[in-house]
Amino acid sequence: MTHLSRALALGAAVLSLTAAAPALAGPGDPAPGNRALDDVRILSADDMQGRAPGTPGSEKARAYILSRFAQIGLKPVGDKFEQPFDFAKRDGSTAHGINLVAWIKGTKGGKAMVVSAHYDHLGVRNGEIYNGADDNASGVAGLLAVAEAFKAKPPKHDVILAVVDAEESGLRGAKAFVAAPPVPLETIALDVNFDMLSKNTKNELYAAGTAPFPYLKPILTKVATTAKVTLKLGHDTDADGKENNWTNQSDHYAFGEKGVPWVYFGVEDHPEYHKPTDDFATVPQDFFKRSVATVVQASLAFENDLDAITKASGR
Known about the structure:
CATH architecture: 3-Layer(aba) Sandwich
Radius of gyration: 18 Å
Strand content: 15-25%
Structural class: alpha/beta
CATH superfamily: Zn peptidases
Number of domains: 1
CATH topology: Aminopeptidase
Distance between the termini: 28 Å
Low-confidence stretches: 3-29
Order of helices and strands: HHEEEEEEHEHEEHEHEHH
CATH class: Alpha Beta
Shape: globular
Mean pLDDT: 91
Number of strands: 11
């Protein structure tokens, strides 16, 4: 995550749009997200070396994520999951990144929903490993839990799972994704982005996006009534200062620049943000498990109402 946030900005304006989330799993199915803690622990271990783009740690993280794709039973959109891209660094040199893109085919087709989360972090600096447990191993774990939920109960619409690289370098992976999307951009009705889901002492998880896209508010308000955390709406206007507006602070912004509606789930900044102390040991496990359950619930609700979202957005 690239933002430095401190306060709350509540979205306004409501359009009538109902949402009914499907059940997470059938009888006897493992609950989506039951591996989320392991996902964070493994992705934020020292041997991942902070997952900086182009490093052996990044390669090792990709190998783990691909093993989870296989375990869940995901398929690539094309021939392979890996989608490489190049980008210019601040010093003018060329860097390389690799997105991982999977697909769950909907039962009726039509529009698609993207679920995104970046897997890169800051790497090793001055001999210290920035493991990025919250930022953003937690978001990747949330995405994998959503994938498990949709595999347990297939969606009506296609769901594209984009685990993107080089967010910390300026949303590079997300920008590469929208520049060469695996499906026509006009068929993407919504991006649901996860960035920092695991650390909050007030039991709060934020959903940004209802100010620019007020037709999403009824869905989130309904989810909030039964969510396992306090789901708050905000951080999507300049009401409390530009620094508290998350509109351009994570990968959803690349979609927004292309006219794709988005919703962004994350926690406010904490003492471990962008510090070497952002380790698995400092993850409040109970809150994180409930946070993952909440983003799964919300993702199912969004997909269930994707036709209404498409109509309301005019896409």
